[in-house]
Amino acid sequence: MKKGYISEIFSSLQGEGIYQSVRQIFIRFSGCNLNCEYCDTPESRVKSVKCKVKGENQEITNPISVENLVSVLSNHFPPPASYSPERVHSVSLTGGEPLLQVNFLEKLLPALKKLGLKIYLETNGTLPKALEKIVDLIDYIAMDIKLPSATGKDLFSEHSDFLQISKKRLQVTSYPPAGATRLPERSGGQERRTGRLQVKIVLTNKTLEEEIEKSINLIKKIDKKIPLVLQPVTSVNGIIPPERKKILSWCNLAKKNLSDVQIISQKHKLWGIK
Ligand code: SF4
Question: In degrees rounded to 5, what are phi and psi of residue 165?
Fold first, then answer.
């Protein structure tokens, strides 16, 4: 596929995980292979006809060529000369599921890199074969473990393969690095974490203890230093987070087995931004 289906392009702060609050340009891909019960971007699950360009009240028609996408970024977001780490941490490929359009990504990613942008992939972690094709072009991976209680599917085997491939490419260092004290927070989008690969699990009131145990074991088998983020769901469609004592107990269980475990909730709605 030489062209891609994108549902929106905008600039905002990362609202999830260990890179929370860094400035990013978001490219939201259309289409998804899952149907999570807590999905907060249902419109991006199907291929959209139009792509919204935020801040400009503009729409462009799908599918979009690499050249067109690069020109939109250059015209509507900070120009290439400004893609310094202080101003823009990275471009977040999000969705939907970006890896469903891996043939397009194979062409798009070198063009984004030419602009000086780092590539941050947000993924449901279920398409390892697609990841293999572009993993050398990725700088950061934020991979979800999608639990059977949320998707109706057992995807642990896919997640395991995905994490193996990700780990080969990306540095996994515990935070703070051994022997160091916790690094002070720095503004301006500079690196605050050493791990470029992170795993996130969204927790709901339907999450089962055995699913958390299986997820922890999966990560531990690959590398116990991979950061794990437990993210209590932001209430949506009647889906609510688990009781606080369950979240804490799962966090403690994870901490006994993994080096870097944090509870970090989604912040977009709290901050009142996209
Ligand atoms: S993987 Fe993401 S986009 Fe797809 S259904 Fe789940 S939450 Fe929604």
Answer: -65, -45
User: pTM for the whole thing?
Assistant: 0.91
Q: Which two tokens stand for residue 162?
A: 């995905």
Query: At which residue do the structure tokens 């279920």 appear?
Result: 126
Two structure tokens written together for 118? 């780092």
Phi, psi of 273 (to 5 degrees): -125, 170
- 95 CB near ligand 1 (under 6 Å): yes
Delimit the domains of the chain by residue range.
3-271
Substitution site in 5, 28, 45, 123 for ligand 1 pocket (most atoms within 8 Å of beta carbon): 45
Fold of 3-271: TIM Barrel (3.20.20)
Q: Positive or negative CA dihedral for 174, 190, 79, 57?
A: positive
Q: Which residue has the tokens 């932001």?
A: 234
CB-based contact 72:53 (threshold 8 Å): yes
Ligand 1 neighbour 121 (Cβ under 6 A): no
- How would you class 79 by CB atoms within 10 Å of its CB: exposed for 0-12, middle for 13-18, buried for 19 or more? exposed
Nearest by Cα to 214 from 238, 250, 243, 186: 250
Gap between the Cα atoms of 94 and 75, Å rounded: 21
* Farthest CA pair distance, the chain: 52
pLDDT in tens, 86-108: 688 999 999 999 999 999 999 99
Q: Which residues sit opposite 226 in a β-bridge?
A: none
Separation CA 212–CA 61 (nearest Å): 41
pLDDT tens by residue, 179-224:
444 444 433 333 444 459 999 999 999 999 999 999 999 999 999 9
Q: Tokens standing for 235?
A: 């209430």
